[in-house]
Automatic annotation (TrEMBL):
The keyword Amino-acid biosynthesis does not apply. It comes from the Bacteria. Signal peptide: none annotated. PROSITE patterns: TPR, TPR_REGION. The keyword Repeat applies. Gene3D superfamilies: Glycogen Phosphorylase B, Tetratricopeptide repeat domain. Keywords: Repeat, TPR repeat. This is Uncharacterized protein. Residues 1-65 are annotated as: Disordered. It comes from Thalassospira profundimaris. TPR repeats lie at residues 76-109, 110-143, 144-177, 178-211. Residues 8-17 have a biased composition (Basic residues).
Amino acid sequence: MAKSATTTKKRSGKKGGKSASVKKATPSGASVPHPEIATASKATGKGSPSPGGDVAPESQANMADAAQVAQKRRVINDLFQRGLAAHQAGQIDDAIRLYSASLRQNPQQPDVWNNLGVALRRSKKFEAALMAYRRAAELRPENAGLWSNMGNCLREMMRFDEAIVAHKKALELDDSIKSHTFNMGLVYRDLNRFEDALRHFDQALAIDPDYVDANWDKALAHLALGNYADGWAGYETRRKLADNPIRPLDTAPEWDGKTDLRGKRILLRAEQGFGDMIQFARFVPLVARKAGHVILECRKELLPIMRTVAGVGTLVEKGRPLPEFDVHVPLLSLPHVMGIGGDALLKISADPYLTPPPGKHVRLAPTPGTVLKVGLIWAGKLNPRDRSCPIEMLLPILSAKGAAFYSFQIDDRRADLDKLGLNAFVTDLGDHIHDFGDSAALMKAMDLVISIDSSPAHLAGALGVPVWMLQLFTTDWRWMVDRSDSPWYPTMRIYRQQAPADWSVPVKKLSGDFATLLQARQRDEMTV
């Protein structure tokens, strides 16, 4: 999610395991596909020297030739093994260099082409990765794992139709491998075809019921479809993910949602990103009605606004020593343990649950004639996908008379304003934002916030500020499918891409709605 008041924590990628996966999964989002790397390769292939056998001593020259062939084979194999070791150690640039050197010596090595493709894809050199996979397919078209890898690459390039073809080929060759079915499911997930995705996740789980990533993405698919009972139950799978941030806590029992909390101190534990914490903070007052005292753990940047959540008794910064408590539960487990369904979610979300911290004063000086103050967030983090919308796309609304625009960017993308010469059209608030309390105070002074999918969008919604959100074609589970509203935030309106990487349709719709809103405000101003 984009940064509203601080720099988000970067997650490191996972290193490649033996003949299995080089993957990473984030608890707040969906899994990435599982590539297969070969751990043994002969430096042979079509048109290559024979891998072994006795050399007939017909002549000294023939023996010398055979020795040269054997030496070359050893050199090629050594390059591959060194490349594989680097790959498995996460030294991807070295792996690419060594695989490439091996292939220059002998290009007839399908396993090496496959591994090169995996390494290149991890480096986001997708076109080169696809070329490598295709070279491998020419040499060994019967390799199911190769076709699955190719499908993964095509999916990441958002060439979904081609990805489906590649994955179907993998499944035709071998449908007994759980990752092949799972990877196909990820394509349907990215196409927002969640029923098809669920079918493939279930097929993978039929092979291995304990398949963590399939259980995780199955949960997210259910949530995207509004199947909350199954979704929240499956959402607990995040505890088993490779980079699970929920640390063990054995000093007290975990609350199951049923145990009587009267007179007890409950610790609500921090996890995941800023936006997730803001989103799930709405459930804190429900717990406070049951418990004797609520202790809420959160990251430092969130402390000022989390103090304004009703029912919070004690705030503790994540990483600091914890006060005494009787029971605990991760914040994002509350919907599951409390049995929150669709109707309950709408009721809980009907009213704002955050306010600016006391003592935060905002003084804005919009130009005369301003009838609409608009906050802007157009760029965010790049992983797992770049959710940014180029600010150039928003130029039609930035030129509108009667509106004053304020940038809430606090990262390097603040420079976009100067780069495009927009400082006269957009006021940069970055120097005034040090935490989410500052952001909250400034947002409450806005008539509208226009944001990409980011923590500022959550903050605006939680404050009850109208927020128009630009959403990628591949939806996040919490924004569901094919709807312009959100059960989480009544003041939110969603503008969705209708094709991958194409902002033209949502921006055009947003621009039209903005013109209508601005004209209405101007008419109201004239009648006062």
